[in-house]
Amino acid sequence: AQSVTQLDSHVSVSEGTPVLLRCNYSSSYSPSLFWYVQHPNKGLQLLLKYTSAATLVKGINGFEAEFKKSETSFHLTKPSAHMSDAAEYFCVVTSGGTGRRALTFGSGTRLQVQP
Amino acid sequence: EAQVTQNPRYLITVTGKKLTVTCSQNMNHEYMSWYRQDPGLGLRQIYYSMNVEVTDKGDVPEGYKVSRKEKRNFPLILESPSPNQTSLYFCASSLAKNIQYFGAGTRLSVL
Q1: Could you list the pLDDT tens digit for every one of the 115 residues in chain A?
Q2: Which residues of A touch B (CB under 8 A)?
Q3: Sequence-ordered list of residues with C-beta below 8 angstroms from that of A48, at least 6 positions apart, any chain
Q4: What pLDDT was estimated at residue A22?
């Protein structure tokens, strides 16, 4: 069984300040972890992925995430928020070895960026 | 351009009137899947397909059907829609490594 908990449903930051979106996961197997972003009225875009290589993962648009097995966390960060980062972000887990390849989504974190 | 295409993007219908949401991908992916997105619940998998003529239930399959007659297409069928199927639906496809590419979504309202 696998699950994802996004610890904040809403996060508000000022433009130019750091972003931290928190995610904890649970998985019976070695997990693959992802962050997806969804802009208003748009589909889901892959930001970055962790698949058992380097624990610090760099993604698009300056985002990165660190896989911490001891804390079962995969928090998403960005040093300096931009107005265009305002969107909903989903932390996603899937377990290796299953043919179903089902993605288990967190409930999402809505990021607001204030000017 | 590699993409997953869903149609229609928006649909309003009435209870009991059969409908189909189409999904097509041009990446030659073997794996395709349907999800529904509801507020506060993230995305939940409805059905998936590992390859042509191979489909199976996801987490919330009740009230839905799918078919996979060709590799590129994976339509979602609601034989008798009900208001609790009002949702935002996403189709996704994948080749390997669990990276799934999503369509733009179909917003369905069942009155």
Answers
A1: 788 999 999 999 999 999 999 999 988 777 889 999 999 878 889 999 988 778 899 999 999 999 998 999 999 999 999 999 999 999 998 865 555 667 888 999 999 999 9
A2: 4, 9, 32, 34, 36, 42-46, 49, 51, 90, 94, 96, 99-103, 105-108
A3: A34, A35, A57, A58, A59, A60, A63, A64, A65, A76
A4: 98
pLDDT of amino acid A98 = 52
Instruction: Give me the pLDDT at residue B95, please.
Output: 78
In this predicted structure, what is the pLDDT of residue A99? 58
Query: Which residue of A100, A107, A110 to mutate against B (max B Cβ within 10 Å)?
Result: A100
CB contacts of A9 in chain B (<8 Å) are: 40
Residues in B touching A94 (Cβ below 8 Å): 98
CA–CA min distance A101, chain B (Å): 6
Distances in Å between the Cα of B36 and the Cα atoms of A2, A66, A111 are: 18, 28, 21
Single-letter code of the amino acid located at B91: C
Residues of B in contact with A34 (CB under 8 A): 98-99
Amino acid identity of residue B27, one-letter, is M
Given the structure tokens 């300056």, which residue do they identify? A62
Query: Which one-letter amino acid corresponds to residue B42?
Result: G
Give the integer Cα–Cα distance in Å for B82 and B39. 18
